[in-house]
Amino acid sequence: MSELVFRGNTETCLQHYGRTIKNEGKEGRTARAPMTKFTGANERTVRDWLLGRVPPVGKFMIRARYFLEGEHYGVQELERLDPLVCDLGRAIAQDRIGFDEAVQALGVPGDHYLLRILHGKIASMARATWVGKARQLLKTIGASAPAASTRSATKSASPVIALPGSRPQAREAVLKSLAALIAASTPLAEIVLSDDFTAEDRQELRTLAGDDGIYRFSNMMERLCTEMARRGIAPYARRAARR
Length: 243
Hints:
This protein is mostly helical.
């Protein structure tokens, strides 16, 4: 086993890592690129993590911890986890399985619950039904996808959610997945709307979301508020179609 570079909690490990690389100018962007790519976070946000200005949150925190692990850091939050949970988080961080796929495979309520598991905030695992499913999941993906080091891990395309065959089950899966997406998106949207992010950051989000992506999503969420809204608000028409 390789000798550890440093041991500490996530934030202190991030700051230590930040001090070991060039963190300013063009050289800084190049030096931060592996973490930016692995975590999927905004380049400016990664810089702020490494400077100790703001900690990662949610899925970004999970990915940041496993990136540091791959750089031979002893991340105390990972060291305190049950080995099964640690292995599950590593598989997700390395994109060997997506969050949505893991939620479905484990049969947990949504992303928020899976994040609680990965943060070690589920008090008792003894009778949890997801434990056996997690073991089976790791056995399955372990056989088909070898563990990658964080230095070479690349982000894959977003996984496609495989819906069950029968129509009632399929509807339930769609509802649960959408509810989890809304629950996960709300705090992230609040963060991006805050002064911690710049106008340029928000424009980058609009670009990453694709042409009219945020407009369409906003329109659909508004139409979902009530049945009256669903019938009364017209579906968003793509800009290209209106030209």
